[in-house]
Structure formats: C-alpha cells, structure tokens
Design a protein that fits this description.
It is built from four helices and 14 strands. It is of the alpha+beta class. The chain is elongated.
Length: 293
C-alpha cells in the first residue's frame, strides 16, 4: 500500500482488529501486518530479551524478539478457517545489513496449503518487487511502474524499477496458484493523414495471444506521444499508473460478451490531431482497470 499514496493511510487498524476479523470471518482478502521495531527484529530492547529461558543481548536479542512475535502470531492465523481454505502467509524482511546486491540475500518465507512445502528453497532470483507483481497477478491489477529510485535497486546491475520484468513468486507455490498473465499484442496499421484538417486515422488490432479469456473492460494507453500530437476523443489521461499524462481510450466492450477469447482480435480505430506531417510514434499499454482514480 506504500506505493498508492491516495489509499496508503486508509483501513489502518491495530493488530487486535485483524484477529477480531478472523474470529468473525470478516477478514480482508489482503492484510499487511507491520510489527513495531522491537517485534520486527530491528532493535533490541534496552535490557536485552530472554527467550525460551535464554538471555540475549544486541542483535541476537532483536532476532529473538522477532521470533517470539512470530511464534505467537503465525499459529493463531494458521488455526483459522481463512488460512486453511488456501490462505497464504508471507513473511519478509525489508533490508540487509551490508547492501542490496544479490550476494546479500534476505529471507522470504511462504506458509500456505498452496506452497510447495517440504522446506522448498527456490533458486529463482526474487526481490520485493516480486511480491508486488504477484499481488497484481492474483488480484488482476496492471503492473505498477515501481517508483523506487534506481540508485536503490541495483541488484544484478540493471535494477528492478520495471515490475513487469521481475520474477513473481510462482516458483514458491504449486503450479497454477498464481494466475498466468494474459499475453496481449498490439498491431498498429498504417496512418492516414488529412493535411487540410490535421487529422490522422489509424486502425489498431489487439489480440489475445494467451490461452485464457481476458475479461473487459480494457483500456488502450498511448505513451510517449510526440509534442503537437493528441488523441481525438480520448477517454482520459493516466494519473495513477506511470507514465502519467498518457491518453487512453476504452476498448469498446472487449468483444461481444465483454471478453477477449484466446486468439481473438479486437479492432480499435484511433483518431489523432497533429500539427506535423511526420508519422505519429508512440508505445502502447493495455490495462484491465481504469487508469485514473
């Protein structure tokens, strides 16, 4: 939720509310638990910490404190029907002590009836953007253009700012748990210019190259339009899904039954206004949600 400033402080409650919701079977589909700095293994208590009869100080005390917190919270969650009905608990840490490279790894633990289990340890390279991408896939959201500064995400040399190129958490789960991302191609035909009206028309074909239906509505976003060009009759411009300020148009009803079936093609007619006679260049995105609040 930290990546969505318009809702980052909504629905924030003490941990007791979470367990009340579990008891009343009204728990949310997605819940983020943030312990305080002593329960999250970040800082040791001033007087140290005695855990299972052993007294610890310094970093060992901090780890024992975090372990103590998890030993109380995780079993309570696992005892509920919400967890047992294919729930997932993901435990992860936010930083290492030495750096952000892949030689400084941090733990990520998945506990679930849907996990591979048997202490399975994945060899697939993952990072915090993998969690974001997985949630986007599970809840049918478009990929977020991760705004983490590039200087802070230098692992593997190229960084992880583009979430769509990051491995999701699929390798930690049984096959098919995390939905396969629909494969959509956009094929733009030739542009027809009308110099006396500064109008440019173009036919774009959007095809479902995957093996599953893609439900509508869908939105075609045109990014990086040149100066002096605009989309005539655009539905709006992106204001929450970067890059911002890009015009988008709704793709009709995405087919007769509001679904693009595998290998089905939807035709969209675009109309531009341009002060230049040069071809209009742009890049495209197809989003399954409205790209504005």
């Amino acid at each position: 939720m930290a990546f969505f400033p318009d809702t980052a402080t909504q629905n924030v409650f003490p941990l007791s509310q979470f367990f009340l919701d579990l008891t009343t079977h009204s728990v949310g589909k997605y819940n983020w638990i943030t312990p305080n700095q002593f329960n999250d293994a970040h800082s040791a208590l001033k007087g140290g910490f005695t855990y299972l009869g052993v007294a610890y100080t310094g970093d060992q005390a901090a780890i024992a404190q975090g372990d103590n917190f998890l030993s109380q919270i995780v079993p309570q969650i696992m005892a509920t029907s919400e967890y047992q009905d294919n729930g997932v608990i993901i435990i992860w840490w936010d930083e290492t002590e030495k750096g952000d490279g892949t030689n400084f790894t941090i733990p990520e633990i998945v506990i679930s009836p849907l996990a591979k289990g048997n202490a399975y340890a994945s060899s697939v390279e993952m990072n915090h953007s993998s969690d974001i991408k997985s949630m986007e896939e599970i809840f049918g959201l478009p990929f977020l253009n991760n705004p983490i500064p590039a200087a802070e995400t230098k692992a593997s040399g190229t960084g992880y700012n583009n979430v769509a190129t990051v491995n999701d958490l699929s390798d930690l789960f049984k096959d098919g748990v995390i939905p396969t991302v629909p494969v959509v191609t956009v094929d733009a035909g030739p542009q027809v210019h009308k110099p006396h009206t500064q109008e440019v028309s173009q036919v774009v074909r959007i095809k479902n190259e995957g093996t599953t239906d893609i439900p509508g509505p869908l939105f075609l976003v045109l990014d990086n339009l040149p100066a002096g060009a605009s989309v005539d009759g655009a539905t709006g411009t992106t204001s929450v899904l970067a890059p911002l300020g890009s015009p988008y148009s709704q793709i009709g009803d995405a087919g007769d039954d509001n679904v693009i079936h595998p290998h089905q093609t939807i035709v969209v007619k675009l109309s531009f206004l341009s002060t230049s006679s040069a071809p209009i260049t742009y890049s495209t995105r197809v989003l399954p949600v409205v790209p504005t609040p």
